[in-house]
Write a structure and sequence with these properties.
single chain; 179 residues; mainly beta; 11 strands
């Protein structure tokens, strides 16, 4: 024992556990305070994403074995949108606070940030973290399901004997007005 926690001989001294307990395996995994994440993961997004819609992403702190861990202090990470010229990043889940960082609060294992991209048919990647402590995911922004119809009469209309001719287009559009 290291003498820090009064634990048994062979204990790492981190959590007061049993002899030989490192504080990072078995039932203890993810619950001991004091461990910095070894990796980050973005929760899987359904792709394609809808252009114009606020899309939330969850970043999760992991230990070296890939298990979720609770962070010992507030951890701030940069967020990035690569190859997405129309993307705007937000530091919250509801696209209310524009920002390029996300904070995993002390005592938790994850945080949510969001993105809204107004460019239709755009592909790129969304990322969080930097250097060796980074996670990213490829995404594509497309139109959502049809929501309404738009009419575009470019030349006006005119009548001929026994017919009416209109020059224009009818377009199905999604909720965000993407065609």
């Amino acid at each position: 024992d290291s003498g820090v926690d009064g634990g048994a001989q062979g204990d790492s001294g981190v959590d007061g556990g049993a002899p030989g307990d490192s504080g990072t395996t078995g039932q203890d995994a993810g619950t001991d305070a004091g461990f910095q994440p070894a990796a980050l993961r973005l929760a899987t997004l359904d792709s394609p994403l809808t252009a114009g819609k606020c899309e939330s992403l969850t970043v999760i702190a992991l230990d070296s074995s890939g298990a979720t861990i609770v962070v010992p202090s507030n951890l701030t990470f940069p967020t990035t949108a690569t190859g997405l010229s129309g993307a705007v990043l937000f530091s919250d889940a509801s696209c209310a606070t524009q920002g390029s960082t996300v904070v995993i609060p002390v005592g938790t294992s994850s945080a949510v940030f969001s993105v809204r991209d107004m460019v239709l048919n755009e592909s790129g990647s969304l990322g969080v973290g930097s250097g060796s402590l980074r996670a990213s995911q490829s995404v594509q922004f497309l139109a959502g399901p049809p929501d309404h119809i738009s009419f575009d009469i470019t030349q006006g209309s005119f009548s001929l004997p026994s017919s009416c001719v209109t020059v224009g287009a009818v377009t199905l559009r999604d909720f965000y007005d993407n065609a």
